Amino acid sequence: MQEPIQNKGFSMETGHREEPVSAFVSLAPLAGVSDRCFREICFQYGCEEATTEMISAQALLYDSARTEHMLEKGEEGKLTVQLFGKDPCVLAKVIRTRFNADDRFQAVELNMGCPAPKIVRNGEGSALMRDPKQAQTLFHAMVQASTKPVYVKMRLGWDASSINYLTLAHIAEEEGIARVTLHARTREQMYAGKADWEAIARLKDALHVQVVGNGDVTTPEEAIKMETWTGCDGIAIGRGAMGNPFLFRQIHEYRMTGSYAPVSVDEVLDVLLDHYEREIACRGEQRAILEMRKLMACYLAGFHGSARTKAAIMTITNMESVRQELEKFRVLASSAR
């Protein structure tokens, strides 16, 4: 059982920090989602920073075409490249040869949060939470090799019986890591259960470097609650932004006015169609349509009558038919208002 939270400026009576905070809001890395096209859209809607999909440091040594595609940067703002790996020599070499002179990226981040079995089995991602000595070796190698700030993203620990994020975060700070992002779940939880925002507040009080909170922010209200309740320097939004880049604009509106406008069906469909066109330009029509299926479903989620449209598009393989289905939905949704 952890001790009661004792973070500076935090009021147990009111349930939030007494001093005002204003955290930056960023797009967290999402495998197969947070590519250049989606990041561009999020920046247009007020996202302040973004991180690439996690990229294999080992693959970068072999000039993988797919990996190179993941490094593309478009019309974006501050962008961090996220690497995963377990070999300090490989990570250091990649940083020196690929990123020190690359002005597209503001920083390099080590992934210690990915829970995917294929990543964990190789001793990478959140498997590093079980090996603090190896993690320290990676921190040291990356910081020594990099001319840019080095960040790390981690989880609470491997499971509920091995919560060690504070220990690892202190090691990271001592080795020169400039920012720690905490996805406030264990690896065992994967993406289930509730994120432990109390842990983010503890981490903020424990470190002098920047702390970014991640987990369960899907509305403007939740974003403001996280920043005021934890005092975090930044908020990283992942799954909450899937099909909902509008969230970044709404968070800004909520901060400024205490309210925010709902998103119309027309705006959602316009952005979705734009997203399709961007992906087609980057990937080609067939691949783009296949890979957009999960995001298309996210864009349309919650709208009355969208189930039929989503089911229809799941079987379509050309953009003209996709567009026709979406325009049919626009008419039906408009008539239902």
Describe this structure in words.
By secondary structure, this protein is of the alpha/beta class. 45% of the residues lie in helices and 14% in strands. The strands form 2 sheets. Strands 3-4-6-7-8-9-10-11 form an 8-stranded parallel barrel, surrounded by 6 helices. Strand 3, helix 1 and strand 4 form a beta-alpha-beta unit. Helix 6 packs parallel to helix 7, helix 11 packs across helix 12 and helix 14 runs antiparallel to helix 15. The radius of gyration is 20 Å and the shape is globular. The N terminus is likely disordered.
Give keywords:
about 325 residues; alpha/beta; two-stranded antiparallel sheet; 11 strands; about 45% helix
Question: What is the spatial order of strands in the main beta sheet?
Answer: 3-4-6-7-8-9-10-11
Mean pLDDT: 92
Number of helices: 15
Low-confidence stretches: 1-16
Distance between the first and last residues' Cα: 51 Å
State which percent range the strand residues make up. 5-15%
What portion of residues is helical?
40-55%
Largest beta-sheet details: 8 strands, parallel, barrel
Could you provide a short overview of the structure?
The chain has 337 residues and is an alpha/beta fold. The chain has helices spanning 36-44, 57-61, 65-70, 88-99, 117-120, 132-145, 165-174, 197-206, 220-230, 246-257, 265-283, 285-291, 293-300, 306-313, 319-336; strands spanning 10-11, 16-17, 24-27, 49-51, 55-56, 78-84, 107-112, 150-155, 179-183, 210-214, 234-237. It is globular, with a radius of gyration of 20 Å.
